[in-house]
Structure formats: structure tokens, C-alpha cells
Amino acid sequence: MDKENISALPKKLLLKKIQEVREDTRIPLKTINSLSGLPSGSSTEHDKAVSNKTRSTYEIDSKYVTFGQRNEDLDWDYKAIKDEANNKDCSIISISDEEESFIESNKKEYNYFNENKQKNGVGEAIRAATPLHKSPLEPNRCYKICLEESYTNCIESEYVNDLFAHLLSIERPVSVPRISSITRARLLNWLLRINGSDGNPAVIQTASWYLDSVLSVCRFRLEQLQQVAAACFWIAQKLHGNVASASMLIICANGTFIKTQLLWAEEAILKKLKFPSQPVVPQDYITYMSWWLDDAHSDEIEIAAVFLCLCGLMVNKTLCNELPSVIAAACIQDALLLLGKRDLMLRLQTCPVFKAAKNKTTDMCSICSTLRTAVRIVSNSYEYKAPMEIFGTGPHFIAQKIVKCAYDLEVLEGQCARN
């Protein structure tokens, strides 16, 4: 490369960088074993002995090393799925008051990842365009990729197109699971309650993808389904962060399985699905399209779209046949319609991601209608109401707004059909 053709950095940027270095006196890449920064008299006898020795460049402290097992003891026959379930009654999937208090008391552990993003180094280096108030939704891999000021155009032009072109090229639908709709809804409702109002909706969508995928190729007894669903949820959490402990999942399942069974189920599911890469889910598109429509107040649109998405996925398993981008586009379109943001409809039609998703289906109106029907079902006499419980709280009260408008639209459509 010709160094003479490389343009110099702006003087303003250099001065800013020098100032940042002066303010931060921490030595880069300072190791844990370095004793130079300790105050005099603070080291132990062992530390003093170590400091008098010349450490080898390749010396490794064994306490920071994890050793793997020497034998390959894997469940190649999927015994986790075939084992008996100790004749326990697993047909009741619920969270008792005791368990809810347990979850509440473990909020600090459960939300540690999200509350410490800046401390653990995963926060943005540049301030991103965040909502005006806290949203119950968590970030996903496409969240806040567009930044403020002069960085916005650069990020959009260089990365967004490539990112979504990749997602649109690798996404695929899931086969319809071989399980009754009501049993599947029961499982997803249970997972939604565990995930809670502070949970990442992408976790539920990913867990649903794993559950539908494994149920489309395997059959299970009724008493095994809760164990399989918990394992799918656990895998999804590990992909997106903020992982609940195995003990917490066991308590939420009323002790219908033990830790060893959960580990076996997780391993068996991954083997059966041949260790798939992280699946593309509707949330990957919903977050960006919401921001694209209204970067200053995208939270209301996003929450409404996620509510519609989760209701649809829980009630109607035929949505498994649709691509994630198509589901996301239908959710965003329905959200604008039901929130009364008709002025943004024309802007949505110009969104490149929305247009690409719309081109992948010939029946967008039918999918939108399916989502609105699912919302009405969940709000009416349906047994499983976790979406209403999660999205029906303040300050947005999105669930109530969407449900009311969904019923009003149904009446209006009925009148138009009769006329």
C-alpha cells in the first residue's frame, strides 16, 4: 500500500484522542498478574515470592485455565429425550406465586448483562439514538446500528445494506411442528412468563424457532415437552446473553425435570438439529424498521410490532411457514395501522428492508389479518395471556391500544364487506 496516498487524520480528531489518552492513565493491556500497580505492603508472602522471580513469557496461571474432560461421554442416542420422566405430572405448565417471588428476587442476577453493558465493554463507543424513556425491549444484533450526527450516513451506506442483504439471503422458514396448537401455545406462554417484561423478545423468537424445528423432526411424550421447551429457551438465551441459571428454570417448571436432564436435552436438541448457526428471527428486522420510520420515537412502534409478532407466533403455528422478514414487515405495517400512524405508511413503503421483505410474499394482507386475529384471540377468552400481561403495562399500555383498534378495524371491515 502506498503510504503517501493515505490522508492524514483530522486535527480535531487527533486533539480529541490525545485528550482522551491524558484523561485515562490506565496502562493498556495491563495483566492481572502485574504487581507494579499495587501499593507497598499490600502483597502477600506468596506474591512477594512470585515478584522476585522472572516470569516466562508463556507462563500461564492454572487457576485461570479450564480443562476439558478426557473422555468423550456424549449422549449419541438422545437418551435425554427417550428417558422416562419419573412419572411426574408435567401436564400443568405454570408459575406459582412462590416461583414468581423467586424470579422477582433474582432480578439483579437475571438482568445483570443489560444493566452493566458499559462496564463489561459491550456498550456503544458513540452515543446512539435511544428512546426518550426506558423501553421493555432489549437490543439485538441489528439494534442501534445507525448513530447520530455525521456518523449516520457513513454507517447506513457502508454497513446496513450489507447486513440486511446477508440476513435476507440466509433466512428460512421453519417446518410446522407436529404438535397441537394449544399445547404449543401453552409452552410459549410459559416461556414468555419466564422471560418477563424485561426480557429480550429475540430470545422468545429464537426459542420458538428451536422448539418448532425439533418438534418438526421428532416426537415427544407430553411429559417431556416442558423439558424440551426449557432447553430451547436456554439455548436461545446463550445466543443473546442474559442467561438464567438452570436452577431457576427448574423452579419455574415446578421441578418436572432436574439439572442433568436439562443438560442432556440441550445437547440432544443441538445434535438433532446439527448445531445450526444462530437463526434469523423477526426481531432482527423489527428494531431497524421501527427506527427507520421514526428515529426519535421508535419505541412505541417497536413494542406494538413485537406484541403483534408474539401473539401471532403463539396462536397460529402456520406462521412458521413464513420468512422472518415477512412476519416483521407485516407486524410493522399492522402496528402503524393500529396505532393510527397512517402518516408513516408512505414512508414505510420506501424502506429498502420493508420492500425486500414484501417482495418475498404475495399475500402480505393475509399475514397482517392473521396477526390481528391472533391479538383478538389472546385478549378474549384465550387461556394463555402472557403477551397481554407483559405489554399491557405502563407507560405505553400498548396491548390495550392494539386490541381496541384491532376490534374496531374488524367491525369496520365487516361493515365494508356487507356493503
UniProtKB/TrEMBL annotation:
Biased composition (Basic and acidic residues): 44-53
Start-end of Polar residues biased regions: 34-43
Domain Cyclin N-terminal: 177-275
Region (Disordered): 34-53
InterPro entries assigned to the protein according to its UniProt record, in alphabetical order: Cyclin (IPR039361), Cyclin_N (IPR006671)
Signal peptide as annotated in the record: none
Name used for this protein in its record: (apollo) hypothetical protein
